[in-house]
Amino acid sequence: MFEYLLFSLLNTLVLGMLFFMLSSGLTLIFSMMGVLNFAHASFYMLGAYFGYQISAVFGFGPALLLAPLAVGVLGALVERYGLRSVHKYGHVAELLFTVGLAFIIEEAVNLIWGRNAVTYPVPNFLDFSLFTLFTTSFSAYRAFMLLISVGIFAGVYLVLTRTRIGLIIQASLTHPQGVSALGHNVPAVFMLVFGGGSALAGLAGVIGGIFLITEPAMAATLGPIVFVVIVVGGMGSLTGALVASLLLAAIQTFAVGIDVSLGDIFARIGFQMSPGGLLKDLWRIKISHTGPILPYLFMVLMLMFRPKGLMGKRES
Q1: What global pTM score does this model have?
Q2: By the 8 A CB rule, do 202 and 67 touch?
Q3: Could you give the C-alpha distances from 308 to 7, 21, 78, 191, in angstroms and in order?
Q4: Are 302 and 308 a contacting pair, CB within 8 Å?
Q5: What are the pLDDT digits (tens) for 211-251?
Q6: Burial of 129 from C-beta contacts in 10 A (0-12 / 13-18 / 19+)
Q7: Where do the H-state alpha helices sit in the chain?
Q8: 260-270, pLDDT tens digit by residue?
Q9: CA-based, 20 to 30 A from 206: which of 47, 257, 272, 279?
Q10: 128: left (phi > 0), else alpha (psi -120 to 50), else beta?
């Protein structure tokens, strides 16, 4: 039991911080620009493929720096020459633009790298077990992912709260006209934020592509959970995104190890479910099999009882 709890907690931290790296960029973009970027997970996919390609030539270290930078530049160009052009037509046009962009990126990946998963291995200097407890080991690469993720959270927090550009960004969120009147280029700030959010997604792709899998369907696989994170955490709340990322990762991770059916749970509290009837198959479903859908169920409950999310701001 101790082994299960410890490694489930460690895996929760790793997966949760990966979710946060993805959702933090989307949260910043939405809170500043009001754009719900449906292509955000596609930038994550590009980060994974750029990281794979660069690491194959120059190694993992340069890929960790160059791939997010390339994705960030691409994101800034998308904002400058794409989103800014359709902004005057409203949010529906922006949404359709990002949906179309996601399809374009996916097809471009298929054309360049093919439809099969690529071999994106753990770098040699991180390919060892950090420690082993009982029969389970925790890899050095997972510890590296956790370290990078925590460093990114601390960096984003410090930039937003302790630097001049962070103050300008925060002021642009609520008083863009006032910031512009002070002589700051608000559209350039928007482009910087969109590029920075895309770079965070790209960085998550560089390290997540090794941890999970690098394939053309990876954006569609992980993309929906990112939107669940920002809805549960509260639209536009960076702290809420962190809390929701860890919470949803815990739900998924701990559920995998619970090999108990719904019928067993009801039996333990004194209710014996009928083995027949329309719901006979439902009682045999094990909690471990429901892990992938539990975050979405949690989101539905959140929208029913707290639509603003865990840390979303209520309208006055």
Answers
A1: 0.88
A2: yes
A3: 32, 21, 29, 27
A4: no
A5: 988 999 999 988 889 889 988 998 778 888 889 999 999 98
A6: exposed
A7: 2-33, 40-57, 60-78, 84-86, 91-113, 140-162, 164-174, 176-181, 186-211, 218-233, 238-256, 262-268, 294-305
A8: 776 666 677 76
A9: 257
A10: beta
